[in-house]
Design a protein that fits this description.
The chain has 4 helices and no strands. The chain is mainly α. The structure holds fe (ii) ion (2 copies).
Length: 132
C-alpha cells in the first residue's frame, strides 16, 4: 500500500499522473491478494503489467528523443523490474494462487522500489527533460 502523500513528485506533470495511476493499481492488486481473490488478483496483475509497459516505454521514448545520457541505466532498471513482475505474475497463475507471493512481492519489493525509483532516476530524468 502506497498512499498518495508517499508518492514523490517530479518536474513533469504527465509523469506524476502516470505514477499516481500506478500506485492506485498496485494498491488494488495488494488488496485483491490480501482478500485471496484469485480472479481479482489475476486481473490486477494483467492491468499492472499493461500499465507498466506504457509507463516505462513513455519515459524511454522521451529520454531517447532528448538524448538523455544515462538512458541505458534507466532503461535497464525498467527492463529488470518488468521482467520480474511478469515472472511473478506467471508464477502466481501457474501456482494457482500463491497469494503470499503477491503480497510479499508487491508490498516488500515493488512498492518500495517504485518510490525509490521515482525519487532518484525519474526525478533526475524529469528535471533534465524539462529543461532540455
Ligand atoms: Fe516513472
Ligand atoms: Fe522510470
Amino acid at each position: 500500500m502506497i498512499t498518495q502523500d508517499q508518492l514523490p513528485m517530479v518536474a513533469m506533470p504527465s509523469m506524476n499522473d502516470t505514477h499516481l495511476e500506478d500506485i492506485l493499481i498496485i494498491n488494488k492488486l495488494s488488496k485483491a491478494a490480501q482478500n485471496k481473490d484469485f480472479d481479482g488478483t489475476k486481473g490486477m496483475l494483467k492491468e499492472l503489467i499493461e500499465h507498466t509497459i506504457v509507463h516505462f516505454s513513455g519515459e524511454e521514448e522521451m529520454m531517447r528523443e532528448k538524448n538523455f545520457p544515462p538512458y541505458p541505466i534507466h532503461k535497464a532498471e525498467h527492463d529488470r523490474v518488468l521482467n520480474e513482475l511478469t515472472s511473478v505474475a506467471k508464477n502466481f497463475e501457474e501456482g494457482e494462487g500463491d497469494f503470499l507471493l503477491i503480497t510479499a512481492y508487491v508490498d516488500g519489493s515493488l512498492a518500495p522500489w517504485l518510490v525509490h525509483h521515482i525519487e532518484t532516476l525519474d526525478t533526475v530524468t524529469a528535471a533534465f527533460l524539462q529543461t532540455s
